[in-house]
Structure formats: structure tokens, C-alpha cells
């Protein structure tokens, strides 16, 4: 157990050292990155798949070069072309699932690392039932009855955004007023006061 912890610490140290030396000494950085790769393979350290994917994006698997997009690697996104449609049992055509991927091309050894992007989960739109409240009786509309009707009618989303806008505007005005009082506390000196 202690040996595994030491190996994990060594691997982390090599990875961080490779990142620190990526710009100042790319050759040394690449050597440290490949040493980290060998250490993980030789000691068979179990690395979570999420960390493995992140490491494959960061360091070239062939030469150990730290891949910085635009500096030491090129990135390109790939979308497979629309393939043939599959027929379902009921006869309708269902499009095949397309997986987008990103290709990282190392500029040192020209190896290409391709990683597929996980599709975003579909947003589920929940339908809310509109509640119909009791209808107010037909009464002569006086000022008081209008206020009661306004209180019964639920506020719309637009009204909420208006309230947020007013609150934001009020906050900005408060900040400007505070800034103005601080500036007046400095004695009211201006740049022109120092001109000769």
C-alpha cells in the first residue's frame, strides 16, 4: 500500500514538473512526461478514466511533450459525416448517433490523439400545469378592487425580469453614489489642480 502511494506521488510530481518546464525547457518537459507514462505503465497504477482522459489531452503518449494548443500541438474538432439511417421495427428511420471528437496533433512527433466528446444530456422540459384560480365576481372596478385583482393574477416571467432589472439598476446607482462620496472626500482635487 505504501509503495503504491509513493508511486502515485512520483507520478504526480513528474506530471507537475513537466508542466512547469513546458515553456522554458520543452525537451526536459517531454522527458519528464514520458517518464511519468512509463512509471504508470510499469507499476500498473490504477488511474480513474476521467484523469486518464485529461492526461491524454495534456501530454503526448508517444514523446511525452506537454500539449499546449497553439504552442506545442494543434487541435481540430471532428464530426463524423451523417451515416446511413437505421430502420426501426415500425418502419420509421432513426438517425444514427453522432459522436463528436477532438484531435490533438503533437507538433514534436506528429502523433495524433483523438478523444471523443461525451454528448450533452438532453434537457427535459417539464410542463407545468396552469392553475386557474377562482374568477373574481363582476364588480364595478374601483381602485381597491383593481388592486385585489392584480394580487390574484400571478406575475409573469417578464415581470420578474423587470424587477431584477430594477434591482440591478438600483445597485449600480448605489455604487455610483458611494464612489461619488469617496471622490468628494479626497478634497475635490482634480488633475487640473496640479497643472502649472
Automatic annotation (TrEMBL):
Residues 75-96, 118-147 are annotated as: Disordered. InterPro entries: Rpr2/Snm1/Rpp21 (IPR007175). This is Rpr2-domain-containing protein. GO terms for cellular component: nucleolar ribonuclease P complex. GO terms for biological process: tRNA processing. It comes from Clathrospora elynae. Pfam families: Rpr2. It comes from the Eukaryota. Residues 120-130 have a biased composition (Basic residues). Residues 85-96 have a biased composition (Basic and acidic residues). PANTHER family: RIBONUCLEASE MRP PROTEIN SUBUNIT SNM1 (PTHR14742:SF3), RIBONUCLEASE P SUBUNIT P21 (PTHR14742).
